[in-house]
Amino acid sequence: MILEYLMITLAGFLGSYHCIGMCGAIPSIISYKNFWIGNILYNLGRIFTYSFLGFLAGLLGMYFHKFEFQLIQKGLSIFVGVMMILFGLQITGNIKEKGVPFLDVVFESISDLLSNFRQSPFILGMFNGFLPCPLVYAFLMKAVLDKNPLDGMLTMLFFGIGTVPAMLFSSKIIDMISPTSRKSLVKIAGIIVIIFGILTILRGFGIGHHH
């Protein structure tokens, strides 16, 4: 279990270099009396949202786990595993992210909304936690399979902790690490997600199942 949480944290750490491209500019709009306190509050807000979503995902998983039909449970494991692999392939760049109509307009509207909370970094971080991201979706799928609200929350908590270094130093990292290097780090995160997906499918077939 400890190794699993370490892997989740590592995936969050490596995958967050993908997040810099999407959300890296958000910390720059923070207007707070102390730069570091403001950024720490912002990251705590993100982790709070991830943990909350993990709790809900674990609750959903627990609900499905209560069904007596093993076929439903196995089907859910296989479905979640396949989805995790697809998200992993999306993160590694093997599957192109399909454009969603009017997504640019939506993000522009979100940016305008977030700018209203530049003096409330914790709330800014909370909103940021809801932004669409294949890496977040992948570990929310994992949280569903935890079948327990607390375990689901811990999965997303450790994932969130892993993303902190990149988001905390996003402005410096953009200058220090080349786009090619960032892509390589993100690919490793995608591979970790794919491994979790494969293990989840195997558990769905009763291979390597432990409880």
Write structural notes for this entry.
Helices cover 77% and strands 0% of the residues. By secondary structure, it is mainly alpha-helical. The chain has one domain (1-205). Helix 3 runs antiparallel to helix 9. It is globular. The model has no long low-confidence stretch (mean pLDDT 81).
Q: Notable features of this structure?
A:
membrane; globular; 211 residues; transmembrane
Question: Could you outline the blueprint of secondary structure elements for this entry?
Answer:
Layout: H1 2-23, H2 35-65, H3 70-92, H4 103-115, H5 121-128, H6 134-145, H7 149-168, H8 170-176, H9 179-204
Pfam family, one: DsbD_2
Keywords: Membrane, Transmembrane, Transmembrane helix
InterPro entries: UreH-like_TM_dom (IPR039447)
Number of helices: 9
The rounded Rg comes to 17 Å
Main pleated-sheet profile = none
Distance between the termini: 11 Å
The H/E string reads HHHHHHHHH
Shape: globular
List segments where confidence is low: pLDDT < 50 over at least 5 consecutive residues.
Answer: none
Beta-sheet strand percentage?
under 5%
Structurally, how many domains make up the residues? 1
- Give the total of beta strands: 0
How confident is the prediction overall: mean pLDDT? 81
> What is the structural class?
mainly alpha
Query: Level of helix content?
Result: over 70%
Task: Offer a quick outline of the entry.
The protein has 211 residues and is an all-alpha fold. The chain has helices at 2-23, 35-65, 70-92, 103-115, 121-128, 134-145, 149-168, 170-176, 179-204.
